[in-house]
Specification:
Blueprint lengths: L2 E4 L2 E4 L11 E2 L9 E8 L2 E18 L2 E18 L2 E2 L2 E14 L7 E13 L7 E3 L2 E2 L3 E4 L7 E6 L3 E4 L7 E6 L28 H13 L9 H9 L1
Parallel strand pairs: 3-4, 4-5, 5-6, 6-7, 6-8, 8-9, 9-10, 9-11, 9-12, 10-13, 12-14, 13-15
Antiparallel strand pairs: 1-2
Length: 236
């Protein structure tokens, strides 16, 4: 099977190039008995996409655009998402395994109680999103992604790696992150540093974390205090 490896983290990619595997074009992701297998779903432009209690397996979803997306109790196995724009995405109570999201827009998304296992996000825009109780049961990689002002709430991402990504005002609010690999990023504008115990960084990034902590604590440097204020304090 093909894999994507960055440093010590390796993600197993969807097995869509196996000999004898033929993907059939489909016009809907709502299959009989709640299952869609060996499929290619391409170029759809939808007002609403609602899927529940569905299993997507061995398929490609390309250039899908939906103005409102609701996914619930969705099982995804060996699926490649490429060039998709899923606006107002709400994805809950689901499991995603051996999946790839490439060049996708998931801005403002809400993922809640979603389990990830061997999932790659590459060159995706995930700004202003909220990941609540998202668990990395297996390796997860975010590479060349934008996660600006995205919040991770009560996550379990010890098996994850974020590399070469935009983490401006990205916030971590509780959870378990021991082993989370944040090397290769600018960490100077992270928020919620108290949650990031036992993560993996490079030594040079400790200065970036210090900068982030200074901003988070909203400290005032003594040398920036005006002389008038110093005199007022002396008078008192």
């Amino acid at each position: 099977m093909d894999t994507r490896t960055i440093r010590r983290t390796s993600v197993t990619l969807p097995a869509l190039n196996e000999p004898g595997l033929h993907l059939s074009d489909v016009t809907s992701l709502e299959g009989g008995r709640g299952q869609v297998t060996k499929f290619h779903y391409a170029g759809a432009d939808l007002r609403d996409l609602d899927l529940a209690d569905t299993h997507l397996m061995d398929g490609r979803i390309t250039r899908l655009k939906a103005r409102r997306t609701r996914l619930e109790k969705l099982r995804v196995d060996s699926v490649d998402f490429t060039g998709c724009d899923l606006s107002s995405l709400r994805w809950t109570d689901s499991k995603i395994s051996r999946a790839v999201f490439r060049d996708c827009k998931l801005m403002g998304a809400t993922l809640e109680d979603v389990t990830l296992d061997n999932v790659l996000f590459e060159n995706c825009k995930v700004d202003y999103s909220t990941f609540t109780r998202v668990r990395a049961a297996g390796p997860v990689i975010f590479v060349k992604c934008s996660l600006r002002e995205t919040t991770f709430v009560a996550g379990d991402l010890g098996a994850a790696l974020i590399d070469d990504s935009d983490l401006r005002l990205t916030e971590f609010d509780g959870g378990k992150y021991r082993g989370l690999d944040l090397r290769g990023n600018d960490l100077s504008q992270l928020r919620g540093l108290i949650s990031l115990k036992q993560i993996v960084i490079d030594r040079a990034q400790s200065l970036q974390l210090a900068e982030a902590l200074t901003a988070e604590l909203d400290v005032t440097f003594g040398e920036d205090l005006g002389e008038d204020l110093d005199e007022d304090l002396d008078d008192k």
